[in-house]
Amino acid sequence: MDEPGSCLARMRETAPLVHNITNFVAMAVMANVLIAAGASPAMVHAREEAAEFATLAHALTVNIGTADPDWGTAMEEAAAVMNGAGRPWVFDPVGVGATRFRQALSERLIALRPTVIRGNASEIRALAGLEGAARGVDAGDSVEAAAEAARLLACRTGGIVAVSGPVDYVTDGKEAYRVANGHPLMPRVTALGCALNGVIAAFCVGQPALAATTAALAFYGLAGETAARSARGRAASSRPSSMPWQR
Ligand SMILES: Nc1ncnc2c1ncn2[C@@H]1O[C@H](COP(=O)(O)OP(=O)(O)O)[C@@H](O)[C@H]1O
Ligand SMILES: Cc1ncsc1CCOP(=O)(O)O
Ligand SMILES: [Mg+2]
């Protein structure tokens, strides 16, 4: 497998245009993360233009976090464009276990065979039809508890499945790798999982998807470790001690 550093260097040489149909929470965070990593983000979700825009993009991400039926159609049409052009796309099944709408849309997207599916452990378990302990969009299951689900999903789609968490797990259904980079503050910041999808998509442009996804996970975890060194974390108490009306 290629060195993660070589994958990063090749991604930066390409500076790929990554088209994202993502959720309202993640849009700005994800765009900034992609620029910082060395790619060009574009957030384009209107049903009337998503497929047309996809023809311009090097890679696509689709994310069902705040989807509605029109966004779902936009995702399916844009993914079909990427498949036709042989370009990578990443699917994030945010909160898939929570509602029938998310489950049905996810089934349609899986049938289009994403290059990479990336979710937290509870999402990957739910996608494989297993019971889980999700709390909305947050994981309640361990990564190890989702490893077999990831393997089965990868065999079903022929793509890569990445389970993020304290130690990420990534597989193509035959080989598997674990990535131990990252910091416990990362799941305390909303949309960091969503933003990771864009980085994975950027790394996958012109590079083998298993190696590229593994490298993206390592790069992202290291970035989180670096950021955590200068982060103060959240306050010890949820009640600030020096609010003006308390003086
Ligand atoms: N406890 C943890 N320790 C270190 N890194 C973590 C931890 N939990 C999540 N991460 C990292 O945070 C990023 C987002 O993953 P995750 O929180 O699982 O996604 P999501 O926001 O979709 O639930 C990944 O890079 C993952 O490796
Ligand atoms: C809070 C929330 N609600 C709908 S989408 C979303 C963002 C989830 O982002 P992430 O899975 O990266 O934490
Ligand atoms: Mg998520």
From TrEMBL:
Q: Which family does it belong to?
A: Belongs to the Thz kinase family.
> Taxonomically, which superkingdom?
Bacteria
User: What Gene3D superfamilies does the record tag this protein with?
Assistant: 3.40.1190.20
In which pathway is this protein known to take part?
Cofactor biosynthesis; thiamine diphosphate biosynthesis; 4-methyl-5-(2-phosphoethyl)-thiazole from 5-(2-hydroxyethyl)-4-methylthiazole: step 1/1
Q: What molecular function terms (GO) are annotated for this protein?
A: ATP binding; hydroxyethylthiazole kinase activity; magnesium ion binding
Q: Name one Pfam family in it.
A: HK
Q: What class of enzyme is it?
A: transferase
Instruction: Name the needed cofactors.
Output: Mg(2+)
Which reaction is recorded as catalysed by this protein? 5-(2-hydroxyethyl)-4-methylthiazole + ATP = 4-methyl-5-(2-phosphooxyethyl)-thiazole + ADP + H(+)
The protein's job, in short, is:
Catalyzes the phosphorylation of the hydroxyl group of 4-methyl-5-beta-hydroxyethylthiazole (THZ).
Respond yes or no to whether keyword Nucleotide-binding is given for this record.
Answer: yes
Q: Where does ATP bind?
A: 118, 164
* InterPro entries in alphabetical order: Hyethyz_kinase, Ribokinase-like
Which EC number(s) does the record attach to this protein? 2.7.1.50
Which HAMAP family does the entry mention?
Thz_kinase
Where do the TM regions start and end? none
Q: Which residues bind substrate?
A: 43, 191
Q: Which organism is it from?
A: Rubellimicrobium thermophilum DSM 16684
Keyword terms, alphabetized = ATP-binding, Kinase, Magnesium, Metal-binding, Nucleotide-binding, Thiamine biosynthesis, Transferase
The protein, known as: Hydroxyethylthiazole kinase
Example GO biological process? thiamine diphosphate biosynthetic process
